[in-house]
Amino acid sequence: MISIKKLAELTGHSGAVYALEQSETENCFYSGSSDKIVAKWNLELLGAEKFAAQFPGIIYSLCFIKQKNVLLAGTSEGKIYILDLTEKKEIKILQNHIQPVFDIQYSSQHKIILSAGGDGMLSIISSEDFSAIKIIKLCNDKLRAIDIYGNEAAIACGDGMIRIIDFGNLKVKNEFSAHKDSVYTLKFSPDGKYLLSGGKDAHLNKWTMDNGQWTMEKSIPAHNYAIYSISFSPDGQLFATASRDKTIKIWDENTLEILTRINKENLDGHINSVNKLFWNSYNNYLVSTGDDRKIMVWEISE
After folding, report:
1. What backbone torsions phi and psi does residue 264 show, to the nearest 5 degrees?
2. Please, where are the H alpha helices in 16-88?
3. CATH of the domain at 139
4. Between the N and C ends of the chain, which has fewer C-beta atoms within 10 Å?
5. pLDDT digits (tens, 9 = 90+) for 22-78
6. Residue 145, CB half-sphere, CA atoms under 13 Å: how many?
7. Cα dihedral sign for 235, 71, 130, 182?
8. Is 30 helix (H, G, I), strand (E, B) or coil?
9. Segments in the chain forming alpha helices (H)
């Protein structure tokens, strides 16, 4: 049994919120919105920090790199803005895409940044000087999400495929049809033993590696509409899914059974599409946000 308590409803953005990201300290995080603003929030105080950065485009993705204390913001213009948080200034603008940057992820092991574009391009960037190492055309549809485990990166593609990039040669190592339509989100399990994916078809799929090939172990009609985000709890025992159907669902990691759901009716949840989840190690708080412009903080107790 798990218990869920809504702790806060953080407001301030004037548009849909698409991005959530860890900050320099465990108790704080960043958010990015269609109002073109990146804001910072404090989970200890359950309120806003004195930080705001405005950009020319909608913020679709954020990536914090602790080793360099920089924040990357991917926008609707296809640009990535790099903010030096120590100096509190913009230090570089990358233009590796011609359509929105939907996700940015960093591999500390390989010192490589990956960005996924609406142009179907995957940009591979050095974290040393932020130069482009390689740009790969993966498909003719949007690339929606990236997740990294070890020497591999999984890419959620708009043509229903998941493509696996090998950090050894920066090439596509594997690709497989994952959903009937666009793949919107994916996450490796914390131990890397399996991969979860969510798509426009509202299905949650579990993939395991078998003889060098990714095989579907289970497919669940998890939501009524597209699944936009997946996030594992810090201890890896639970995970949450967020959907266009305005709900968040909490799942048992071992059994893939739904333990509870968060919606407007039962826990005063979101009234519009839930776009992003961020499960923080600070007090095991789950943070959610979406088209209703609200950021909600949930206390999850087992």
Report:
1. -65, -40
2. none
3. 2.130.10.10
4. N
5. 999 999 999 999 999 999 999 999 999 999 999 999 999 999 999 999 999 999 999
6. 25
7. positive
8. strand
9. 264-267
pLDDT for res 211:
86
Residues 197, 162 contacting (CB under 8 angstroms): yes
CA angle 10, 114, 132 (to 5 degrees): 125
3-state secondary structure of 278: strand
Q: How much of the chain exceeds pLDDT 90, in percent?
A: 98
pTM as predicted:
0.97
- Predicted local confidence at residue 227, as pLDDT: 98
Place of tokens 């548009």: 15
- The answer for residues whose C-beta is within 8 angstroms of residue 88's C-beta and 6 or more apart is none
What is the band of 299 on the pLDDT scale with cuts at 50, 70, 90?
A: very high
The Cα 186–Cα 30 span in angstroms is 21
Question: Residue 161, Cβ neighbours under 10 Å: how many?
Answer: 18
The number of distinct structural domains making up the chain is: 1
Q: Please, are residues 211 and 257 in contact by the beta-carbon 8 Å criterion?
A: no
Q: Measured between alpha carbons, how far is 179 from 286 in angstroms, rounded to an integer?
A: 27
The structure tokens 């407001």 sit at 11
Residue in the structure block whose two tokens are 């899914």 = 241
> What's the pLDDT band for 302 if we cut at 50, 70, 90?
confident
Find the angle CA(203)-CA(206)-CA(209) to the nearest 5 degrees: 145
136: its two tokens: 């790969």
pLDDT at 1: 81
How deeply is 205 buried, as exposed, middle or buried, from its count of CB atoms within 10 A (0-12, 13-18, 19+)?
buried
